[in-house]
DNA sequence: CGGGTATTTGACGACTGTCAACGCCAGTGG
DNA sequence: CCACTGGCGTTGACAGTCGTCAAATACCCG
C-alpha cells in the first residue's frame, strides 16, 4: 500500500535526490507501516533489512540490559529517520518500540545503499542527520553521567518540547503538548526507576513547572523547565 | 611540516579515494601536529576548521558541565578520526584534550568537504566511522544509566584493551597495556568522582583483576574483567 | 463491573558524592 | 644532596540521592 501522506517526509529525506529518480524504481518498494502502541518495530540483533521515516506517533529506541531493564537512547518523533545502518552492518544495535500507535514509511536498506551510490549528496545528507543524533546522544551522556534526576527529566521534557516546536508540530507559544510517555518510559530514558521518576514529577508539579494531563502535558513555566534541565537551545535539532 | 609517518593513517581514512587524487592538491594542506599532555586540541564552541587523525598518544573527548566538571564522551586512541563536522556545522560540540603527548594529522574541514563532493565513497566511509562511534556512545549511555561504578570502569578498561588489540597496538595475549589515564580521567569517562574511582580500582586490584603500574596497566584476569563490565566483544570496533 | 496497567506513597538501605587529610613520587632549584 | 612543590593516589567519616520492596490507589478498556 502506497503512503500518500508520507510523501512530505520522503521528500525531506530525499530532498537532495533528483525528483525524476524518486518517481523511479526505488520508491516502488516504499511502503507504509502501521504499528499499534507497545509493539516492536525491530529488535536489537535482528537483521537490519529496513530503515524508516516515522510519520506519526512516538517511538522509544533503547538497548536492553542483562538484568531485564533497558536504557533509552532516543525518543523518535514524527519526521525522524530511524533504523538506518551503513552498508556492511548486518544487525540493529538497538530496539525500536512503539510508544503510541505509529505510522511509518519503510525503505529497503539495500535500496537506500544503492541510491546513495548514485546520489552522493544523499550520503552527505544522512551524515548530517547522524551527526545531529550523535550530538543529542552526547547530550544524554552528559545528563546520565553528571546531572540529578530532576535535571535529567526537565532536560528531556524541554528537549521534546523544542523538537516538536522546531518541526511545527506545536504552535509557537503553545503550552500544552501531546505526551504519550509513561513514567516508566521516562525512567528508561533518564536512567531512573519508575518510582523515582514519579517523585521527581511530583516535585516539578509542586514547583509549578508542569502539569500532566492524560496523554498530554502542560508546561506551566517553560523558562524554569529549561533552567532546571540546563538545556542549551542551540543543541536541539 | 609534512608527516611521513601518518601516511598510513591517511590511507586508512582515504582508502576509498583514488590515490592519484590524494597526491594532489588537498593533501598539500595536510599537516602534522604535536601536542603535549594536558593541552587542548580544540574546545567546545570553537570554530571547527580542522579534523584530525590521531596518530600517536591518547586523547579525551568531553563536554563541560556548568558546575565545572566534565563528562567524557570518548577516549581517542591512535588511528581514531576526530573533530570532523558535516558541512554547515560551524562549531565543535565537544572539547579534545591530550591525555599524553600526542601526534596528529590535520585536514582542513573544507578540504574534506570538497573531497567528499568529488569522491562519494569517502562520505559513505565516514558514515560508517560515525556509525561505529555512535554505537560506542550508546554503549556508554547504557553504562552511565544502568551500571554500577565497578561495571562501568571494568567495561571501559576492557573496551580500551580490545580497541588496542584490534588495531594491533597490542599483541594477542599480551596482558600489559599502556595506560596514561589518571583516576580523575577515568572518573570523567564513567561519570564518577576521582575518589570513588579510586575505591573501585582498589576493589578490582583486591579481586585480582588488574594491577596498575606507572603509566601502564596489567590485566591479570581478562575474562573476569569482561564479565564484570558485561562487555560484548562484538560491539567493540 | 472487573482486570490489568499506571501512578502514588512510605520505609529502608545501598551506592556514590563531598569534604578533609595524608602519603607518595617526580621534577626543580638551591 | 636536600628541601620544596605540584600532581596524583589513598583513606576515613558522613550525607544525600536514588533503588528496592511493598502496598494502596487511580485509571482505562472491554
CATH superfamily of the largest domain in chain A: Jelly Rolls
Domain module tally of chain A: 2
Share in helix of chain A: 40-55%
Work out the radius of gyration of chain A: 18 Å
CATH topology grouping of the largest domain in chain A? Jelly Rolls
Largest sheet of chain A: 4 strands, antiparallel
The low-confidence parts of chain A are 1-8
**What's the rounded overall pLDDT mean of chain A?**
90
Report the β-strand fraction of chain A as a percent range: 15-25%
Count interface residues per chain for the largest interface. Answer: A-B, 41 and 41 residues
How is the quaternary structure best described?
Answer: homodimer
**Could you say which overall geometry of chain A the principal axes of the C-alpha atoms support?**
globular
Strand order of the largest sheet of chain A: 1-8-3-6
CATH architecture of the largest domain in chain A: Sandwich
Number of helical segments of chain A? 9
Q: How do the helices and strands follow one another from N- to C-terminus of chain A? A: HHHEEEEEEEEHHHEHHEEH
The number of strands of chain A is: 11
Amino acid at each position: 500500500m502506497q503512503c500518500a501522506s508520507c510523501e512530505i517526509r520522503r521528500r525531506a529525506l530525499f530532498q537532495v535526490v533528483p525528483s525524476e529518480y524518486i518517481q523511479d524504481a526505488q520508491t516502488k518498494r516504499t511502503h507504509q507501516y502501521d504499528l499499534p502502541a507497545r509493539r516492536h518495530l525491530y529488535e536489537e540483533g535482528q537483521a537490519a533489512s529496513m530503515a524508516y521515516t516515522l510519520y506519526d506517533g512516538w517511538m522509544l529506541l533503547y538497548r536492553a540490559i542483562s538484568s531485564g531493564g533497558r536504557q533509552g537512547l532516543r525518543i523518535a518523533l514524527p519526521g525522524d529517520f530511524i533504523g538506518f545502518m551503513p552498508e556492511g552492518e548486518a544487525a540493529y544495535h538497538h530496539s525500536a518500540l512503539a510508544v503510541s500507535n505509529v505510522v511509518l514509511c519503510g525503505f529497503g536498506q539495500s535500496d537506500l545503499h544503492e541510491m546513495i551510490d548514485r546520489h552522493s549528496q544523499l550520503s552527505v545528507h544522512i551524515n548530517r542527520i547522524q551527526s545531529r543524533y550523535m550530538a543529542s546522544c552526547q547530550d544524554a551522556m552528559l545528563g546520565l553521567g553528571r546531572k540529578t534526576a530532576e535535571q535529567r527529566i526537565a532536560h528531556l521534557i524541554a528537549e521534546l518540547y523544542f523538537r516538536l516546536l522546531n518541526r511545527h508540530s506545536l504552535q509557537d507559544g503553545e503550552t500544552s503538548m501531546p505526551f504519550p510517555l509513561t513514567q516508566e518510559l521516562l525512567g528508561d530514558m533518564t536512567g531512573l526507576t519508575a518510582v523515582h521518576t514519579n517523585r521527581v514529577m511530583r516535585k516539578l508539579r509542586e514547583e509549578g513547572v508542569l502539569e500532566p494531563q492524560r496523554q498530554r502535558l502542560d508546561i506551566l513555566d517553560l523558562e524554569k523547565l529549561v533552567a532546571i534541565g540546563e538545556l542549551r537551545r542551540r543543541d536541539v535539532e
